[in-house]
Structure formats: C-alpha cells, structure tokens
Specification:
Elements (H helix, E strand, L loop, with lengths): L1 H11 L3 H10 L3 H4 L38 E2 L37 H9 L5 H27 L5 H32 L16 H4 L13 H17 L5 H18 L1 H7 L4 E5 L6 E5 L4 H27 L5 H33 L16 H23 L22 H9 L17 H33 L8 H20 L1 H8 L5 H15 L7 E2 L2
Antiparallel strand pairs: 1-4, 2-3
Helix pairs in contact: 5-6, 5-18, 8-9, 9-11, 11-12, 13-15, 17-18
Amino acid sequence: MLAALLLSLVFCQMPARAQLTQLSTGENEPQNGGSVELPWQARDKFDRVRFMNMASSHFIYKQYNPAQTPLIFFPPVPPPLDSEIPVLAPLDAGPPAPQELASFVGETFYPLLGARLASDDLPKALRARIVAYRDAKVAIQSELRFRLREMKDADKDTRARQLSALAADQVARISALEADAEGIRLDLRPTGILGLPAENPATPENFGWKVRAASETPSDPSELRREAEAIRGEAYFEDGLSLQQRQLLEEVADDLEASADAHGAQAQALPGTRLIAFSPEPSRIVIPADLPSTLLIKVNGYLSAKLALKSELRDALHAAGDTFGEARRKSMARLAAVQAPRIGSLEEQAEAIRRELADIPSLRGAPPPPSLPPELTARIAAYRMHKVELLKRLRAMLVAPSPSAEPADAKSGSRPDDASSRVQSWLHDGASKTEIQPSSLKVSVAEFDRLQRELIASLNSEESGIRESLADYVRTTNAPADRKSINDLLRDFEEARQQQEIWDRYQDYQAAVLVPGLSAGQRRVLFDAGIEELGLALPGGERTR
C-alpha cells in the first residue's frame, strides 16, 4: 500500500517548473512521439499512457483534423418509371463517389460503405461478408427475373398460382437477406480501439441534421433541400427503424427535393398525366389523369394513408431531436412496431391498384424503333455512346478524382476501363490503396478547350458519316413521294430507339412496381436490381462536420 502511494506521488506531483518547461519546449517529444499540440500528460517522460498496452498509442489524446474527417455519399435518386435516364449527376464540389458503390445503390448501408471505401478502411472479413450478401441477393434476383419471363404468356390464374408459390419459396431467404443487410449496416459503422464501437461521425449532430415536424415543412427551396438532406440522413443512419420506414423517409426526401426544383417537377407532370409515389418506395410512376372513378378513389386513399405514415414518422424524428443512444433507438423501434400493421395494409392497397393499372394500355411499354439495316443501327448506337462518353470525360476534368480504392500493385494500362469490371475486381480483391494528388484536381482552361474541340470534331465527323449512309439507304429503298428529310429520319429513329432503350433498361423497375402477384420483399429486391440496371451517375461526397 505504501509503495503504491509513493508511486502515485511520483506520477501526480511533478514540479510545476518541470511541467511548464516540457509544455513550452516539447523536450520529451522524441521519446514519446507526441506533438507539441498535445497536453503535457501525453508528452511527459512519466507519461502514464506509455505504460499501457501498445494498442493505446495516445488514442485518448487524438486530435480532431478536419482534413481527415470521413466522407459521406448518398445514392442517386431513382427517376420516375420510363422517364429519361440522367447521364450525369449534378456537378457539386465534393469528390466523386467510389465506382464500387454502383453495385449497392439500393442498399441501406450505401453511405457507410462509401465512407469505408473512401477512407480505405474496409476489413477483409467485412468485405467477404458483403460479397456473400451480394451473391445471395443476385441469386434471388436472377431466379425471380427468370421465373417472371417464364410466366410472361401464362393466363392470369396460372400466373397468380405460380407467383404465389414462388413468393412462398423465397420469403425466408429474402427475410434473412434483409436482416443481413441491417447487420452489415451496423457493422460498417466506425470502430475504435480494439474494434470497439466508436462514435459515428455521421450522426445528426455532426451534420446538423434536425428534422422538422411535418406541419413545419418550409417553402424556401434552399430550406427544402436542407430538410431533404436531414431526412435522408436519418433514413440511413437512424437506428431502430424498419426497412419500410427507411424507404418511406427516402421518399419524403425525394419529394422535398422535387418541390425545391419547380422546373423539374413541372417537366415530369406532362399534360394529361399524374406523377405519384408508389410501392416499393422510393419508386414513382406516371399514370393517366383521367382514371376510372373507382381506381381514382383507391389511388387517392393509398396516397392519403401513406402521407399519414410519413408525417407521423417525421413528427417522431422531430420529437426525438435531443434524444440519443439507446433511448432514441428504443423510441424508434416502438414506432416501427406501431406502424408495421399500417404499412402492411398500405401494401395491400398498392396491390389492388396494380391489378387495375395492368389493364391500362398506355402502361404496357414502348413501340419498337423503325427498321434500319443492322450495320446502320449499330453505328447510330455507337455514336450515341461516344456522345455520352464525351460528356463524362469533359465532366471528369472539372472535378476531383474519385477517392475509391484501387489495387496497390495496379500497373498503368492494366486496369479495365469499364465500371462493371472495376466493381467485380473490388468485390473479389481485398488489396487496396487510396491516393489523391492535389495537382490532378483541375486542368487549365486552354487544355480543356483544346480537348473539347478535338472530341467534338471527332463526334461531328462520325455524325456526318452516319448521315451519308442514311441518305444512301433512303435513296435505294424509298420511293420519292415517301421520303423524309435526313434530319426527320434521324430524329424519328433516335426518339423511337431511345424509348425502346429506356423500356429495356426499366424492365426490372417496371416488374417490381407494376406486376401483380409479387410479395413486398420480392418487389424490394427486384426494385434494387432495377435501379442498378439504370446505371445512374453516383452523386459526389461531402465531409462530415
């Protein structure tokens, strides 16, 4: 006991002069590896932290460095069914998202995975778990897609029986898959010393996320976007919520952003149509404005019930604004249990609407494009692809390089260029390094103009060749009285081809939203496949506060 008391006096009663000398000169810094910015306890030669295990490493005195704070990435917003697919994400100041995230745009752990990839901090065990999860999900999606194609021409009764049997066969696997996704979301949260949970850097207080009550929804566009960001953040980072509640919050955020962009909302609401949020969330579909009265009543009742759920959820998040930790999680879990029956009833209402929408001809798909020689069709498709590549290349010169991890031993020219290959390479290769050169963030105006002129000149030359070939085809196949101008032919073909291409890429999206007979879980996994198939540009990231 006496020895322990003496040792305590040695550690705790150092002369004041010695303490001041060490604080001003940092004479012990070489011994402890500390910084002069640290308190004296971390730099003193009798530093108590030094006598702990090696994992300590002055962790408790680690300084906050804004330049090293994690990045947060949100997934792209799904467009309305059969609408034009955006080629580029909005140009923002943040660094581009890691391309590996393209395979996870429908996942609730997307932002947390993005932060891990951007900081090159994804353990191999967790990576392997994500790969296994994705393989299991792709297997379910492929099976569901194949069976839907098999039943395409079956009569309604046969189709209903087969879909019911398939839903019963997949229900347990889908339930386990969604539970695994929630477990991955939790395990992707940052960890501290010895793998213990650390404070999540993307908590509402760090981002300034404060959800308002539904009755306090702002009208100013900038405030609407701020509210949308707060709600989207809660959808991905709030513990205790059910998967369906997270999707409802995503829908709320999308609605608020659409309200902030009045021009975009007007462009989607074409004359004679109505844009509605549907199921699974956050899907949106365009329906005729002049629906039969019975169907119109069902649609309006469905939207009213959904709005009540979303408002109640927003009010609960607002009320829990200053509550944190386990108390907040339990509060959200109780709300999830209370809302679960009503969410189930909402799915039943959506199914009744689907059965009646299936008989509307305008929702059955786009007509095929005009017939042209295969060689000419391929050239037009290649021209359009080159046009998109030009836009992406010019865009890449204006923003920072992606923080995504790349193999440490990758050699110049050996890495595949297509995004799909990069994703598959990441999925099955655990080695990665992240390196961003500040000098590569921008290009000179002169260099940008030069490259832009060269690319556009090449594209114009390709277009001229297509026009000449199309003119030759018209001269050899059409009678003079039936001829259209080359511009008209190109426009007609391009419009029809784009409609067909859009229809093809939306097949999974449409099946998830409109095909009657699927379970709610099947719709969710198929909708995720549909969003991935669209190949949406990934929004850039921003740093936590």
